Automatic annotation (TrEMBL):
Name of the protein in question: Polysaccharide export protein
Organism in which the protein naturally occurs: Novosphingobium humi
Domain Soluble ligand binding, residue spans: 129-170
Keyword hit for Cell wall biogenesis/degradation: no
Domain Polysaccharide export protein N-terminal: 49-123
Family annotation (Pfam families): Poly_export (PF02563), SLBB (PF10531)
Stored InterPro entries: Poly_export, Poly_export_N, Soluble_ligand-bd
Leader sequence residues: 1-28
Coiled-coil positions: none
Record keywords: Signal
Length: 204
């Protein structure tokens, strides 16, 4: 049976329509680049940790050794201020900054394990803070960055009716004793991980 020009035209158009989506799908797949992780990405993420922040028990860190997936992971700071790291064993992390921890891991890995390792440290979870005394829900709470005294009290359910707004004490994580908060500066006071707030009782 002979094909007429009209029949050949419709047949060609049908084949073109069938092949069009396939070609578009292949082209789209080729233009989407695969995600890449670079040392710059790691450093930028880690920079969210304040440079002068001193780690302590209860902090949980993510340590990235660029190009070494077996070493990259999350590490908790123990009650003794240590983290247990593959190949090099215990690393002192208590009361040390991000830069100090990075330098220690770099130096120990470079001493016989890796050539010029690139190390980045960031915080996954901060240690908790505490609110005690005349608040509705005294206790231990997860810390979040840029936490003010007012926000900490609100997290603990707010002041009780017996609370004295002029008798608030704060003990920072690295201190042995409480110090009073000036009433006119209480709204500006920023807390650190591990801090303890104690709200006193007012005298009627």
């Amino acid at each position: 049976m002979r094909s007429t020009p009209a029949r050949r035209h419709h047949l060609g158009l049908g084949l073109a329509l069938l092949s069009f989506p396939i070609g578009m799908t292949q082209g789209a797949a080729q233009t989407v680049p695969a995600p890449r992780i670079s040392a710059a990405n790691v450093a930028e993420s880690a920079s969210s940790v304040p440079g002068d922040y001193h780690f302590g028990p209860g902090d949980r860190l993510r340590i990235t050794v660029y190009g070494e997936t077996s070493l990259t992971g999350e590490y908790a700071v123990t009650s003794g201020g240590l983290i247990s790291f593959p190949l090099i064993g215990d690393v002192e992390a208590g009361n040390r900054t991000r830069g100090e921890i990075q330098a220690t891991i770099h130096d120990r890995l470079a001493a016989g394990y890796l050539h010029d390792p690139r190390v980045a440290v960031e915080v996954v979870d901060f240690r908790n803070f505490y609110v005690l005394g005349e608040v509705n829900k005294p206790g231990e709470y997860p810390y979040r960055p840029n936490l003010s005294l007012e926000q900490a009290v609100a997290t603990a359910g707010g002041f009780t009716y017996r609370a004295s707004h002029k008798n608030i004490l704060v003990r920072h994580n690295n201190e042995d004793s409480y110090h009073p908060v000036q009433n006119d500066r209480s709204s500006q006071l920023m807390l650190q991980p591990g801090d303890t707030v104690k709200v006193g009782e007012r005298f009627f």
